[in-house]
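S.,

As promised, the adenosine-5'-triphosphate run. Input:
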Amino acid sequence: MKLKLAIQKSGRLHDDSMKLLKECGIDISNGVNKLKADASNFPLEVFFLRDDDIPQYVEDGVADIGFVGENVVFEKDKKVVIEEKLGFGKCRLSIAVRKGEEYTGAAFLQGKKIATSYPVLVEKFLQEKGVSAEIHEISGSVEIAPGIGLADAICDLVSSGSTLFMNGLKETEIILQSQAVLIKDAKITPEKQQLLNKIIFRIQSVKKAKNNKYILLNAPNNKLNEIISLLPGMKSPTVLPLAEEGWSSVHSVLSENQFWDIIEGLKAAGAQGILVVPIEKMIM
Ligand code: ATP
Ligand code: ZN
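Predicted complex:
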């Protein structure tokens, strides 16, 4: 028995999806140019598909699981379960209007034309705001619609905003924050769920490792207590004596978001020779 995974064939999610599998120790070397490929060291078969089709394939059980953007999952609204956020493919689905326009909130959209590839999510947003507008569904290059007179506003995916800028548009409202997620067939069998649990455990270990750094530093022994009090660590930090009398080496783990604050504190407390190294996997 094999677990069947659907990932994007080519596009923004493809490389990160392949990379995540690799980081999870799953080797898919053969045939990325084909429709499907087998993992050599895990009971997994990978299907390469258009991202828009992935929720449907997972609902139908053609694939058991898939890596796909939340934006697509919510737009397609299929019977699939979001099992895990994957930490890549981050973007937002936003309303944008012409640069010169004054956007006064969702009411601005009343009676206007909105071009988008996400009619379901836009309609939901408009309903929540009590606004009615005309939605023009287009499948690509949404950002050119206002320039050619097809629409007054657009709703599209944004990451840096440079595409909007180049087309004379400005982002005015975020309707969804999105990232890639692992979805599964709601009717997945217990045997397959067991395989899936193994993959999820590995993904979580990879994600944790990415959010954390291993830190090593030297400290005079009379400053040790203060320095240790600044470090969270998995348990307590490791403290080893240095060859030089009166000094110790302290090892610990810091999460990315508290990182710089703590480093400053450590330096101020007398830590020296601070080394920060990436962690590959973190099992807890
Ligand atoms: P496909 O041929 O598979 O249908 P596509 O053209 O629909 O590809 P891509 O542009 O490759 O899709 O985007 C795939 C996903 O990447 C999006 O659905 C979204 O979840 C994510 N993404 C992240 N950042 C962006 C961005 N700036 N613009 C568009 N999508 C982004
Ligand atoms: Zn697509």
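The chain has a mean pLDDT of 95. The pocket of zinc ion (ligand 2) is lined by residues 50-52 (CB under 6 Å).

- D.
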